[in-house]
Amino acid sequence: MKIPISVLVVIYKSNRDVLLIERADRLGFWQSVTGSLDAPEEDLASAATREVFEETGIAVEKLPAGSLVNMHHQIEYTIYPEWRFRYSPGVTRNIEHWFALQAPENIQIQLAPREHVAYQWLPFEEAAQKCFSPSNGEAILKLFSGNKE
Questions:
Q1: Cα separation of 37 and 106, whole Å?
Q2: Which candidate, 19, 2, 3, places its Cα nearest to that of 139?
Q3: pTM over 0.85, yes/no
Q4: How far apart are CA 89 and CA 83, in angstroms?
Q5: Do residues 149 and 56 make contact, with C-beta atoms less than 8 angstroms apart?
Q6: Nearest to 79 by CA among 34, 48, 44, 39
Q7: What are 14-56's pLDDT values in tens digits?
Q8: Terminal-to-terminal C-alpha distance of the chain
């Protein structure tokens, strides 16, 4: 069963284009990298690093130091009813922690085909609007607002 604590990682380039990936289980649902902790004691940055690699093939540890930044922002939201079966009975809320990752211009993306079927780089405003989750869009806008705390 999934742990109701997760990370969201907004991946972007220096030109402020943001990477969005399309869910395999819901075509037309575009999002940033997301994922739950593997264990309650898993470090949030470790979870973010793991999820980025699993979903995009980007090895955070091979990027320049400081590429992955904890935005020190978390939200609590109601888990979509169609995805609650992944959690223990009665779990309806999730706490999501936001991160940002600056990627090199020439980064190669390798999707996990069971999770995502397509990706695109979009200007951040367009990416924020395209996300199926309003909070994902908010995370993108917060990153580029200059107010990361």
A1: 29
A2: 19
A3: yes
A4: 12
A5: no
A6: 34
A7: 999 999 999 998 899 999 999 999 999 999 999 999 999 999 9
A8: 31
